[in-house]
Write a structure and sequence with these properties.
By secondary structure, the protein is of the alpha+beta class. It is built from two helices and four strands; from the N terminus they run E-E-E-E-H-H. It has a domain of about 60 residues. The protein is globular and about 35 Å long.
Length: about 90
Amino acid sequence: MAMSGVPGPVQPAPGGEGVPRAFGTFTLLRKIAAGSRGEVFAAWRPVEVERLCAIKLLPAALTRRPEFLSAMRDEAPRLVRRVHGNLVPI
């Protein structure tokens, strides 16, 4: 399966239908990782700047915990400043 403008093959999307799934202005392509703090998906963003990126989806139960949301908000600015070949730019 190929999508116009998306580099490389498209892997099955989350949900098991084998078709990429929309998430806002992003298209989730495949799950990269999962853990207690959420799932990370490879995604394509055709809006504004076309590029591959990663999206972290948080478990609904954690989003109701103020201390967890605070930790995620603190983490985001630190990740933006990190530059490393194994990290996806934010």
